[in-house]
Hints:
eight-stranded antiparallel beta sheet, EC 6.3.2.49, 14 helices, metal ion binding, 19 strands, D-amino Acid Aminotransferase, Chain A, domain 1, ATP-grasp domain-containing protein, Dna Ligase, domain 1, 33% helix
Amino acid sequence: xxxxxxxxxxxxxxxxxxxxxxxxxxxxxxxxxxxxxxxxxxxxxxxxxxxxxxxxxxxxxxxxxxxxxxxxxxxxxxxxxxxxxxxxxxxxxxxxxxxxxxxxxxxxxxxxxxxxxxxxxxxxxxxxxxxxxxxxxxxxxxxxxxxxxxxxxxxxxxxxxxxxxxxxxxxxxxxxxxxxxxxxxxxxxxxxxxxxxxxxxxxxxxxxxxxxxxxxxxxxxxxxxxxxxxxxxxxxxxxxxxxxxxxxxxxxxxxxxxxxxxxxxxxxxxxxxxxxxxxxxxxxxxxxxxxxxxxxxxxxxxxxxxxxxxxxxxxxxxxxxxxxxxxxxxxxxxxxxxxxxxxxxxxxxxxxxxxxxxxxxxxxxxxxxxxxxxxxxxxxxxxxxxxxxxxxxxxxxxxxxxxxxxxxxxxxxxxxxxxxxxxxxxxxxxxxxxxxxxxxxxx
Length: 443
């Protein structure tokens, strides 16, 4: 069997998913934007794949039809039996290519509904699944009109964005024009080939209530559900808890398994199942984000027809004893489901977490800009005895820390933690986020 990977930003770490796929099939990789590969990625691709196809870059990257055509050509050249793409940027083009080639995939229409947040909202609304008021955003007048309708703050979002790029909050009507301009500028400065129109939508800002949902503190009002769809059947695998966000919207970390009680887990899974069904997906990984509302319901934030990024997939695999990348490969290659459905009554014996630390929460009394000089203590001094630091990275000394509207790509440190105790893992995550403080280079 042969698999073609379409590789770019997003999804599980390359060193994690490549060996899993290589164990199941012969692997080739198509890279639409080879100029953004760093030396480590190049070395991993060269060592891990039989063939690496680097595109020549002689076309408009915003032309998705041409991108899809090039994926088709690469797949035909490799005689691929399956196409795999973990990147949000190329999910629709890969889905379209698979459909043209008669291969399994999410389906072009379903992938487009997952990629375009306005189409997603329309599909959810048609199934009675959204309590978010929204509308297409063409000018600041649309922002003001929705604010008047909902009587409070709103969010503006790129219809086809990723990693929170371009998402901004508007609190007052007189901010609308300036914030919309800032959002467009933020998206333009993010290194992604956005859609040609740069279209946005505006939607009601929802406020959840984690205290109502969780028996213990330390979580945000949002959860994620990891899973996959196999021949149209949704298979939820895990609920991932989200630690409190760094204001205004940056996700700081994730913990698995969930600390929700059994009844709350069932409500989360029920909403995720209905939401995925509304998009009409066929075969793909999924990442569902839900808001935990004060009335006990779940509101859909968004759904991706691909696996989550960062280290959420390795975290899920460790905590739940599964192999999500392998299960996706089995589904795409053979049409079979080789992973277990989430059991709300189960209590896994292992736990894992990802923690990202940002300048705005690690600066203490220091003012930006400063140059990163490390931390006052090492993270290993802040974790409980059962907690192992399975992965750690921090910025190089001298890296400039400054105020940023969109902070998510500019973390100072990232930790991947593993433990046999969910309680000690939670405590360690809280301690690391609370006590790890930046030291400027010149001190």
